[in-house]
Amino acid sequence: MNVAGRSASADTCDTLNSDSTQHACSGDAAANQAGSFFMPIKPFLSIDDQVARLENMGFEIEDRNFVASCLAETNYYRIRAYWMTFERDGAIIPGTSFATVWQIYRFDEAIRLWLWKQIAPLEIKARTQFAYWMAESCGPLSYCEARFFANKDKHAVSMKAFEREVFRAQKDGVPCVVHNLQKYGQLPVWAAVEIMSMGLVSSLFGNVNRDSGSASLTASENMCAAFGVKYPLLRSWLHHLTNVRNVCGHHGRFYNRIMRVRPRMLRRDRQYACDKEFPTFLVLKRLYESSWPERWDGARRELTRLIDEYSDVDLNPMGFPEDWREVLGECSASDSSC
């Protein structure tokens, strides 16, 4: 995340995480048991006050009613993340229009929807392939058995997460869960994956025991073959896309974001490796060209139309190269080299 500045809410979260003691409150400040004091919470600002504050910060406001309508439907602090690009030394760059920031916000919203749409089939395929090959090579309940996974502690954490998913599914009456539990008392992997998150599938796959000759090695190799890439790449890509999917699912900011979970890149793509967003689009292209090459062209065209619609939005903060149209062009022959 670009941290040109910190919000009061971020500071509060840090404080609460570092000090869990009960705080005494006064009219002016809050004191903890050690006697230190925090700044008082900022006063509430009405929508009109928020517009005035933006003007005082140096934003060009062409239409106050438009800005007020934006702030009424989108939280001030949510929009704030998008004008960090236009801050220098804590001040707004002269000539910056609020309308420009709003365009970036809407662009980011559209990009997240595009990403969600492209990641969804990959998530379903990952669930399907994991269930099929683990069942075929290791057995219907293999996902529960620690012997098929390299890190036993990590597997135990995954199973705790899975137990929570089972509890929710039972509570919601998910048919495949209710049926299998009533009939067998357990969930075979092909039913279990239907309530697993992408993160859980990614975590289990990334922890598979790949010792030579093991059944789980065979399962993971077959899954990689289905995606047309080698294990280190698929493990990395599923982890990365899980992170991206979570950003999209929680309506987080994707534009100008520092990607903490960076994907490994094919040898021919390493020139584009960075901690920004462009590698995500390359990973999607490579996965589509090995799974559904005929579908990538439509997805790419949709992305191009979206970017052209928001042509005033700068792609440099996302790590896009000048020739991004060519780089993300039609699918080429598969190359799974690392």
Task: Describe the fold and architecture.
- It is built from 14 helices and five strands.
- The chain has helices spanning 8-18, 47-57, 64-73, 76-80, 98-138, 152-172, 175-183, 189-192, 198-206, 215-227, 231-249, 278-291, 293-309, 324-327, and strands spanning 24-25, 30-31, 37-38, 87-88, 91-92.
- A hairpin with a 2-residue loop joins strand 4 (87-88) and strand 5 (91-92).
- Helix 2 (47-57) crosses helix 3 and helix 5 (98-138) crosses helix 9 (198-206).
- The longest helix has 41 residues, at 98-138.
- It is globular, with a radius of gyration of 24 Å.
- Residues 1-26 and 333-338 have low confidence and may be disordered.
Overall shape: globular
**Continuous helix count:** 14
Low-pLDDT stretches are 1-26, 333-338
**SSE order in H/E notation?**
HEEEHHHEEHHHHHHHHHH
Reported for the largest beta sheet, the result is: 3 strands, antiparallel
The count of strands amounts to: 5
Q: If you compute it from the alpha carbons, what radius of gyration comes out, rounded to the nearest whole angstrom?
A: 24 Å
Percent in strands: under 5%
pLDDT averaged over residues: 89
What structural class do you assign from the helix and strand content? mainly alpha
Helix content: 55-70%
Q: Strand order of the main beta sheet, please?
A: 1-2-3
Determine the N-to-C terminus distance. 28 Å
